[in-house]
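Methods: example folding runs. The two proteins below were folded one after another, and each record is reproduced exactly as written to the output file, sequence line first and structure-token line second.
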Amino acid sequence: MTDNRTGGIPHQPSSGAFPAKSWGAAYGVPLTGPEHAPGWVKGSTGFGDNGHRGAFGEEFIRMLATAANLDVTRKERDRVGVDWQLGYAGRRGTRRFPAIEAQVKCTSSPDVHGDHIRYPLKVKNYNLLAGPGFEMPRFLFLVLAPADPFTWSHATEDHLLLSHAAYWMCLHDQEPLPMDNRSSTATRTVYVPRANLLTVDSLHDLFAEEYRDLVTS
């Protein structure tokens, strides 16, 4: 069932789905000051800035999609509001090699409210995701990363840990907004359900025909 407040069609339950976590503790002021930074950081241009954070968010998605055995293609020119195209490497139900598209955003200051995350999306970007009429389903992928870039990843011989998580949202059931008299900085707040945790399994769920039906309706 579509939820007009949060958008999308959540596949995961909202009750009891989240582990005990202090969401505010890992965001805000970086934990590692420059006086404790390793030597290589001094020669690393843009370490921890918005561009670096955005690149981390996109690679976070690529890592998940690769683990899900999906083909991942980067859109080199950001003209249509798409960062990644994800393709199914085989047959999904009755459809051969279906594909979806994703716009990726990454934030270190999430506005978390119980079962959803409030995120101000530029109207231009919102309209590139909202409504029907697209060639294939599109999704917003919101990556939540720590404020301290030194804690984005932790590698050992046993595992590679990326922090913290990503969530998805479908806006095809929402109406695009008029751009008349709107500045390029105007935003529309979206409510990304925390039930929509992006995982290997939920990535495969996004290829369901119900999302393609929303695009073609």
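Second run, written to the same file directly after the first:
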Amino acid sequence: MQNATSLSQSLSGGLVRSFGAIVLGSVLMTLAAKYQVPFYPVPMSLQTLVAIGVGFAFGPVLGSLSIVFYLVEGALGLPVFANAPERGIGLAYMMGPTGGYLVGFVLAAATAGLLSRRFRVRRYRSALVVALSAGAMVYLPGLAWLGSMIGYGRTLLDAGFYPFLPGDLIKAGIAALVYVQAMRIRDHSKA
């Protein structure tokens, strides 16, 4: 009987921690959407950084679930997205030109979590490759969706890729650096 109680407490504690991670990831995505860093040629949100970061921190499942939770909040009409409610809310916002990038954040979190766990990434260079790969996942559905609205070709790249690439490279570098430092601290505290 005591083993069943201990197992039950362990499971409920794990569920609470998991739900807490999902909510924390969603809150961080909301904050990242609302605050923009002045940058050339376009202001830079921190959403890609957060999506990669929650993937690194929480793993592929909880990381991507935290972004899905963020998207569900937005779909329900909560003003969690960048420039919401000024530029719309809910599903109408999600069906707009940035809708594909929102889906890409889920892929970025899953990729960062999966690759960092699969290859036991601990060095900056490897973490940077993972972060860049995860960041690229934002562009796949983002450009596909935007292209369906404005057409494919040079105009698409000028509108949805080139202006954001410098900032996204910097964000990938920051995510990789923070991840490697966090792993060093964690590994050192275990020793």
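Comment on the second run: Residues 147 and 156 are 6 Å apart (CA to CA).
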